[in-house]
Design brief:
Mean pLDDT: 94
Low-confidence stretches: none
Helix content: 40-55%
Radius of gyration: 15 Å
Strand content: 15-25%
Shape: elongated
Structural class: alpha+beta
Number of helices: 5
């Protein structure tokens, strides 16, 4: 099974070669359009231009389906001053925080010594590219 999710908000899952989607109508529409235009196999879907967190979620799912998903930051905790896990920062990006200041405001990451702000910038940049 392969999945990508925004906890308590959206989930795309591939199980037994069937893609299921839970989330907003916009997410459902985007996934259905990919199925119509590129087939039901997410390994054949193109990565999306990023305008929303849903696009990041779809790209994460496509990369995971192709065994190509990898964070540019490889530690469990991204902000050591505030004890903020990397996954929490990534979730905030998928929820639409596309600026370091927005991530900091929602997660508290980068609000201590500031050393992790460059790592936050890298995550935002990595997942906002098609």
């Amino acid at each position: 099974m392969v999945f990508a999710e925004i906890p308590f908000k959206a989930r795309i899952e591939l199980k037994d070669n069937v893609v299921t989607v839970r989330g907003s109508k916009a997410l459902l529409d985007k996934v259905n359009l990919l199925k119509v235009n590129h087939g039901k196999d997410p390994r054949k879907w193109p990565k999306q231009s990023v305008a929303t967190g849903e696009d990041i979620l779809i790209n994460e799912f496509i990369l995971k389906a192709n065994s190509e998903f990898k964070f540019c930051y490889n530690h469990e905790e991204l902000c050591h001053c505030r004890n903020v896990p990397t996954e929490k920062v990534f979730t905030s990006i998928k929820n639409g925080c596309f600026k370091t200041e927005d991530v900091s405001r929602t997660t508290m990451a980068g609000t201590g010594c500031g050393a992790c702000r460059q790592d936050i910038d890298q995550l935002i940049e990595q997942f906002n590219k098609p």
